[in-house]
Amino acid sequence: MTRSKDQLIKDRARLMGPNVATFYDDPVHFVKGDGVWLWDADGRKYLDCYNNVPHVGHCNPRVVEAIHRQASTLNIHTRYLHDGILDYIERLTATMHQSLNSAIVTCTGSEANDIALRMVEALTGKRGIIATDATYHGNTSLVSQLSQSNVPTVGFGLEQYFRFVDAPDSYRAYDSDGTIFANNVAQQIAEHEKSGTGFAALLICPYFLNEGFPDSPDGWLKPVANVVRKAGGLLICDEVQSGFGRVGTHMWAHEKMGVTPDIVTLGKPMANGHPVGGVVTNNDIIARFREGYRYFNTFGGNPVSCAAAMAVLEEMDAENLMDNAKTVGAHARARLSKLKEKHEIIGDIRGSGLVFGAEMVLDRKTKTPASAQTDKIINAMRHRGVILSKLGRHKNTLKIRPPMPFSIDNADILFDTLDDVLSTAL
Ligand code: PMP
Hints:
- 37% of the residues lie in helices and 17% in strands.
- By secondary structure, the chain is α/β, with parallel strands linked by helices.
- The chain folds into two domains: 157 residues, Aspartate Aminotransferase, domain 1; 257 residues, Type I PLP-dependent aspartate aminotransferase-like (Major domain) (Aspartate Aminotransferase, domain 2), CATH 3.40.640.
- The strands form four sheets. The chain has a seven-stranded mixed β-sheet with strand order 4-10-9-8-7-5-6, with helices on both faces. The protein has a four-stranded mixed β-sheet with strand order 1-2-3-14. It has a three-stranded antiparallel β-sheet with strand order 11-12-13.
- Helix 3 packs parallel to helix 9, helix 4 crosses helix 8 and helix 10 runs parallel beside helix 12.
- The longest helix has 22 residues.
- The two termini are 39 Å apart.
- Bound molecules: 4'-deoxy-4'-aminopyridoxal-5'-phosphate.
- 4'-deoxy-4'-aminopyridoxal-5'-phosphate binds next to helix 4.
């Protein structure tokens, strides 16, 4: 059945529930993707500056071929022996510090974070978790407690295990070397201990992507990692958004931030849109987790998923996509700087590699968030054929994280369009 746009909107409410979110005032109906491009049902072409899941490009031929090849041969779960998952884990862990040498392959980032929390409980015997107050780590009963931005109105009474610290904000409250953040975490560790819950782990995105990716110098997480370890806790880095070369300078944002986590969680770009997530840690931690919990995931780590995930790593190497992120990211920052000189509404520009954006303000002195204008900008960009979004505590930061083959020419289309929108649409 091919529905009109109005019918699609009505049928979504009828069949999926009335409050399922869509992007934009005028939702888009995509029917095709290729590389960094998307097409809607009317045949209109859009530049995708937003979607980080199709990491190596929409419908990437290497990934499509790998899925097709494996799906036509065998798909089975991990209780049978198979090379695919082992080859993948070997190749994945070779990109990380040697202490991160084993993995569990899941289907989503939420599952990966859920496992990580249960791992730290199995290891420390404690349940106190700390996160930032403007993050998102997923949707399970346990993990959804971490998302202050999506506070559940019903739940399983797990709130007492979670404490929050102010998300870093390099524009409004610059913390040059991460010591303020570390001190805030130390305070919450003390609160966990005082309450009798005890402190188990700090869970953060090492590039604080959902928080608005503050511009912090490399090595910024070292002080907080010391505080966590001194207290006997573990550091979990959620690389669901920040990983796989996205930041351009390093394969993993935790490397950029100067730390080796005890546990790394993965998702989104891992298999280019095929549902794959993962937890990487050392063999001892996995062993303790498996002693504590009988864990099995029917779909996690199946041969088709592993073939797709392997193809992503192969494509990244073959096309030097991390270097591309670095080069195009530097160009993007230069163009954003120029736009900032021209447009008063741009208060701050930030980013590394192929995650970058600009914070919109009503007044550069007071830094009052221009949230309504940011909304207008992204809607105007969509009508001009450029897909991006917004994020951060005030929803006033443009969120730009295109597929990794994004080129300098693509970036020029993006910034020429943004220049036009800022000049004419506000
Ligand atoms: N962690 C982070 C940092 C995320 O941004 C998300 C999803 N937006 C998740 C975890 C959850 O991943 P999933 O939707 O695959 O469960």
